[in-house]
Amino acid sequence: MEKVADVSLSSSGVQAAKSLREIISGNSIAVFFAWAACAVILLLTTLILWMSFSRGLPFESGFSPDNYAEVFGSEHFWTVVLNTVGVGLGTVAISIFFGVPLAWLLNRTDIPMRSLFITMLAVTVIMPGLVKAMGWIMLLSPQVGLLNRLVMGIFRLREAPFDINSLWGISFIQGLMLTPSMFFLISGPMRSLDSALEEAAEVVGANRLKIIVWITSPMLWPAILGGIIYIFMTAIAMFEVAGLLGGLSENRILATEIFLAVQPFEGSSEIKYGVAGVYGLLIMAPSLFALFFYFQSLKQAHRYAVITGKGYKPKDFPLGSLRYPAILFVLFYLALAVFLPFAVLLWASLLPSLRMPSVEALSLVSFKWYSEIHYLLGGFDVMRNTLLLVVGSSALVLFFSFMISWVVVRTKLRTRRLVDTISMLPHAIPGIGFAFALLIAGIMTAKWFPWVPFYNTVWIIIAGNVLNRLSYATRITNAALIQVQQELEDAALICGARKWVSMLRVMMPLIRPSLVFAGLWTALLVFREVSMALLLIGPKNKVLATQLWILWRQGDLSQASALSIVLILITGLLILVVQRATGKIGEPRSLPQLGGGG
Amino acid sequence: MSEGAVPAVQGISFDIDEGVFLTLLGPSGCGKTTTLRCVAGLETPDSGEIYIGNEPVFLDGKGILVPPFRRGVGMVFQSYAIWPHMTVFENVAFPLVHGGFKAPKAQVKERVRKALELVGLAAQENRPAPFLSGGQQQRVSLARALVYEPKLLLLDEPLSNLDAKLREEMRLELRELVKRLKISTLYVTHDQEEALVLSDQIAVMSEGHILQKGSPREIYLDPRHPFVANFVGNANFIEGFVEPGKNGHPDFVVGTALGQMSCRLSSEIAKGERVSLVFRPEDVVIHTTAQSSRVNTFPGIIERLIFLGNRIYCEIRSGAFLLHGETNARTEIQQGANVFVEIPADYVRVLRAQ
């Protein structure tokens, strides 16, 4: 008889494979691309650091501390820092003011139309921050603001009561924008809080207010703290609102200073890359610090592990007659965040120039701007660029996050934790920091390798967006891949499929719903992203979002309004597609994607 | 070995002859699944050699490591690993279409149908895999492993997720199928009955070692290790010292807590050595009256009786020793009764004490 198998093992570990060569042989594609993405992240981060010590481009000038001297010695320095902190705290305050009560009302009470409201909160992303800011300027600017003029008319005031062009204004708008993030960050913990813990307090005679103050709030503290840190980080790195409201020269914050240093079209003359590098680091430092605390607070969360896997249903708090004020509160937020700015934009888009609603104004209403939409959109090139940007970014984000997650979740490579951490870095480094580093990289490329089509092309904006979105997308793909049982992949290998065949034919189809979800959300957020794009555009790579900014800066409020409405409609369409394709909007899962409100 | 991991396998060696069904039997954590996965190529041993056919697939000395997709083995997983996004047909056709066993399109259909017929699922071709019951998924998994006619079939506790009745059916069906196809099989299970029913050969494993390898009959009737005796079936253990035979008995005698017991000693065991005597409950003969002339007969009291339907299980106290025995279900016997237990010398195995 012939031997079919002969096995002799002296010792074999529980661990799958031991040497790097063995593991890589099966996963080389994933390892290669994951590390390529990580290398770019690290290189660009290093570049920011390098630039802060360099007066010119890298390799062309030596290291010097002059940039730091210039920044710290500047008369504006402390103003800028204080303004930035102020805007961060103000944004946090507004988002807590709205977000926490909303989360409680919509998750733990018997408020009517609950799921409708949750969906509406989720789709407030329909209105990009830039557009929201434009709407609010038209409502509350001291010169043209419709609300200001209304109040002045009623109370016969000489001066406008509100000034949106202030730190308060920036905080207010950013706070409105980030409220949904706060809401979704604490909704999960709030929903899964075991109501038995509240009932226990009720039994020993505590009244409702006391229960909320002493039981519910402390248990939610880790989630709220995590939310605060996250909102603060996002707020201080946000550029577009402050850029629009301060006209870049008032209300200076770190994000606008970076922009001013490298795009000095507003007055100042000299391009100061090194100075921008220092500002970039200044934004990054607290973010990295905050990210650390964010992880800590998540780690601590187990101490409050009242969130059991048991199938209990949290008991809804009966609102009784308080339910009308509660609905009003939800509507109040939605009005401020969406309805009012949308209404004023729509109104402005139908008029030759902004004016108060009146019989006379009504007679001027026309669709003139919409009939010129092709001109407003900036022509065919802008459309093509935008399409390439959206499709290219989503595809690349999906590809790289799949590869990174593969290494992190499905290999036993020792460096996988490092890959995971590096892929989280873009979460801490503001988009505008990456955009700055890419700008430098782009200039260097154009200088030394002019034949590489990168600088002043859509690809440089795509690169920025891909890096910026990678953290969020890898969270989704990580979660999805963890859920796929190892044996499903093993079975494909045993059937004689190579690793990449099993990825393509088995693993990818299995997690397709998550990939679709991640891809569409990426498309949506890339479409409305403007901060990075503004830093990276030149004459040849304009996209829709920057086109809107340019129109507004040129002073064409009505034209900009018309374009905003078109932008909102396209975003709305995208959201509809997401909803249709995945049915996931409004689930707490969509939280990290929504979090990228900036 | 890295990061202080405990080796799951600590030196084992076996081979599988053509058409032989070999089972690795052992409790969970004994290293049997690790061994199977090493053969499949899903895990890599630290050292050793694995040949499939005449090809080396792992030789640590020469740095040979053949990846799983080139080993050409078939495998059925504990969880079946049926791909939920494909139909039954697509699952079974996968090795022929996307895998390493590419076949012309015309043949694929024919071969998949044949494989599905083998497992009795011919009518289910176009059903999406998630709509199948556990037993049906099991069959699809088997068909997928057989469709490319592998040299070696690996089965990783394939029946453990089925309910008891279905498990018994599938056991017989699997045995039938494997015998008919004459396919060499390596089977992993912790279920001793399964191992006895299915196998040509059983290797009993514990803590990374193979303790004994042999036919089901040898493993059950002639256990060479107390663990084997206890893991495969039930056993009584009693310790003692070997003494020279007396009273004209040809055999040696072992002094135990029960008293002196006659038994057959293998030549390796010398006088004076400490030994373990092993005998099975079903070999114990229970007499209700005194049996003066018999050897290895001891008085006792029935401490507990459990009626099992086809037999009665008894715990009998004799001195300090509690003895497990079995008797025919129709035996009239009462708890607390005085009995005499006879342990036939031929059925007592003498093992060197551990």
Number of strands of chain B: 20
End-to-end distance of chain A, in Å?
A: 72 Å
How many strands of chain A? 1
Give the assembly state of these chains. heterodimer
> Ranges of chain B with pLDDT <50 over ≥5 residues?
1-5
Arithmetic mean pLDDT of chain B? 87
Give the proportion of residues in helices of chain A: over 70%
**Strand fraction of chain B:** 25-35%
Helix content of chain B: 10-25%
Strand order of the main beta sheet of chain B, please?
6-7-8-2-9-10
Classified in CATH, the superfamily of the largest domain in chain A is MetI-like
Give helix and strand order of chain A, one letter per element, not per position: EHHHHHHHHHHHHHHHHHHHHHHHHHHH
What general outline of chain B do the C-alpha atoms trace?
elongated
How far the N terminus sits from the C terminus of chain B, by CA atoms, comes to: 29 Å
Structural class of chain A: mainly alpha
Give the largest interface pair and sizes.
A-B, 40 and 71 residues
Radius of gyration of chain B: 25 Å
Describe, in plain words, how this protein is organized in 3D.
With 598 residues, chain A is mainly α. Chain A folds into 2 domains: 20-54 and 383-541, MetI-like (MetI-like fold), CATH 1.10.3720.10; 76-359 and 366-378 and 544-598, MetI-like (MetI-like fold, Orthogonal Bundle). Chain A has 27 helices and 1 strand. In chain A, helix 1 (20-52) packs across helix 19 (431-448). The longest helix of chain A has 33 residues, at 20-52. The N and C termini of chain A lie far apart (72 Å). Mean pLDDT of chain A is 82; it is low at 13-20, 301-312 and 586-598. The model of chain B is unreliable at 1-5 (pLDDT under 50). In chain B, 23% of the residues lie in helices and 32% in strands. Chain B folds into 2 domains: 21-230, Rossmann fold; 234-352, OB fold (Dihydrolipoamide Acetyltransferase, E2P) (Beta Barrel), CATH 2.40.50. The longest helix of chain B is centred in the middle third of the chain and has 18 residues, at 164-181. In chain B, the strands form 4 sheets. In chain B, strands 6-7-8-2-9-10 form a 6-stranded mixed beta sheet, with helices on both faces. Chain B has a 5-stranded antiparallel beta sheet with strand order 13-12-11-14-20. Chain B is built from 8 helices and 20 strands. In chain B, a hairpin with a 2-residue loop joins strand 9 and strand 10 (209-214). Chain B is an alpha+beta fold. Chains A and B meet through strand 1, helix 1, helix 21 and helix 22 of A and strand 1, helix 1, strand 3, strand 6 and helix 4 of B.
